Amino acid sequence: MGSSPHVKFLMMVSRLVVDNFFGVFAVAVAAAVVGRAWLIRPEEILDQMLTLPRVYVFLAVILAAALEKMRRMRRLRDVYLVEYGCFRPKPCYRTPFATCLEHAHLMPYLVDEESVAFAMRLLERSGLGEETCVPDAYHYMPPDRSLKASRDEAELVMFAAVDDVFAKTAVIKPADIDVLIVNCSIFTPVPVFADMVVNKYKLRSDVKIMNLSGMGCSAGLVSVGLARKILQVAPADTRVLIVSTEILSSQYYVGTERAMLLPNCLFRMGAAAMILSNSPSEARFRLRRVVRTVTAARDADYRCVFQEEDDKGNTGIRLSKDLATTAGYALKNNIAAFGPLVLPATEQLLVALSLLKRRLLRGRAKVRLYRPDFRTAFEHICIHAGGRGVIDEVQDGLGLSDDDVEASRMTLHRFGNTSSSSVLYELAYLEAKGRMKKDDRVWMISFGAGFDCNSVSWECVKPAGDADGPWAECIARYPVQLPEIDKDIRTTLASTVKVWGNEFRR
Ligand SMILES: CC(C)(COP(=O)(O)OP(=O)(O)OC[C@H]1O[C@@H](n2cnc3c(N)ncnc32)[C@H](O)[C@@H]1OP(=O)(O)O)[C@@H](O)C(=O)NCCC(=O)NCCSC(=O)CC(=O)O
């Protein structure tokens, strides 16, 4: 239905009024007060004040000062992202599909043809490209799952990310870090990774350290939430360093259970480091909202990402077939709390009206609830690059366009599922493409074992000066055209598995 310019204008005005209701209300009240005060002469006001007993005036002044002091003391400080950095893998860590296939066949373990074909089919359909990287340990035959290999991988990826963030924030030195939070889900050595970072960068002896483990891919945003709680009440100029990673070396699954083979296909090496502060100087983003939703009370959700042994005793992570649906459910719960904090009033009003309509027409007609348009609240959305299925689910659930999910799909294609660091690679993609502008709002969504959904929103204070970062060498090639995924087509690589298998056996 075409609408006339008058209707468009009226709609624009009503949107402005509804979205800025409190502002409009405050202006109206202020206007009324000024209007009334206008009628009273200043001498009258002064006379009335002078008739008050002195002690009342004195008490009023003291009370006002005390209230102001209390307000200042209770006010939570704003939190800022000063800078972030990501590990950029060298080409020697690449694992093209053909290498994975060859590797699977040369593996000394009893990996049957069917499992190899299944893994290759998943790989081709997963949304990962040919340039994703795995640690050295995976390039060995058999994979090196030793503690040393895991430590080597941890040092490589974490230190590269931390070096990157310190290189970008020339004014902040390791000695300026007051709090350190490191998160890694599936591997936790003794001493923990946080100690490893303290030792490498010789952080101060009074640094507060925390090491989060077992929280899956959402742990990076959980760390941001934790840092925010600390910074809101810490003295001014407190700095928190967060390091988010997943160490894969010890996790290569060597059995034949399909649900446990999936992580081998999806997870790739990666790490990100962030410096957060409660001082706005040098800040690049302002932290706006953090909302965490835990659905672990539901048994199916709790077992959705589960580390265990298969019936032959091989340890691995079992990913449920229903993971994408579980993620959709968790997101629904999450946005029920997050939406009211970020959506403009018009969108909230439309949701409320559709709820009311549904209630009034209950039993008589089926009313679809209004799906709020989150693009009215955010210019950019970074969805955890958990796998093609996860991104599809969020895109469908929120009604997003292909452009809205480009950063997530391209990150999955170039870097794979890098777990808790993936949303930072996505932010780096947007910046490398030069799409981030001052005042732009960003929504990061992550999911993780538990099950857990996290939303974090940022506002850009200062866009990146250049496109340096993990995308520096390849950004010109992106976005790439992703292959059409047809349910009925058995892909080429998977169908060549049998032929290759026979060749290898000869
Ligand atoms: C794996 C996929 C790319 C496959 O896509 P397809 O288009 O091929 O879809 P599909 O679902 O029909 O799957 C193809 C075949 O794989 C099988 N299949 C799929 N997922 C499976 C699973 N988890 N366990 C066992 N089998 C599985 C299907 O039964 C089917 O087999 P057949 O053909 O024989 O019928 C997609 O399903 C996907 O992205 N899923 C989500 C991946 C995921 O769990 N990511 C989160 C990681 S955890 C994370 O990020 C958070 C954390 O760790 O904390």
Automatic annotation (TrEMBL):
Ranges where the FAE domain occurs: 73-360
All copies of domain Beta-ketoacyl-[acyl-carrier-protein] synthase III C-terminal, residue ranges: 379-459
Annotated Gene Ontology cellular component terms: membrane
Membrane-spanning segments: 21-39, 51-67
Record Gene3D superfamilies: 3.40.47.10
InterPro entries to which the protein is assigned, alphabetical: 3-ktacl-CoA_syn, ACP_syn_III_C, FAE1_typ3_polyketide_synth, Thiolase-like
Record bears the keyword Protein biosynthesis: no
Cleavable signal peptide: none
Pathway note: Lipid metabolism; fatty acid biosynthesis
Molecular-function annotations in GO: acyltransferase activity, transferring groups other than amino-acyl groups
Keyword Membrane attached: yes
One BP annotation, GO: fatty acid biosynthetic process
CDD domains: CHS_like
Enzyme Commission number, as recorded: 2.3.1.-
Keywords per UniProt: Acyltransferase, Membrane, Transferase, Transmembrane, Transmembrane helix
Family to which the UniProt record says this protein belongs: Belongs to the thiolase-like superfamily. Chalcone/stilbene synthases family.
PANTHER family: 3-KETOACYL-COA SYNTHASE
Protein name from the UniProt record: 3-ketoacyl-CoA synthase
Source species of the chain: Triticum turgidum subsp. durum
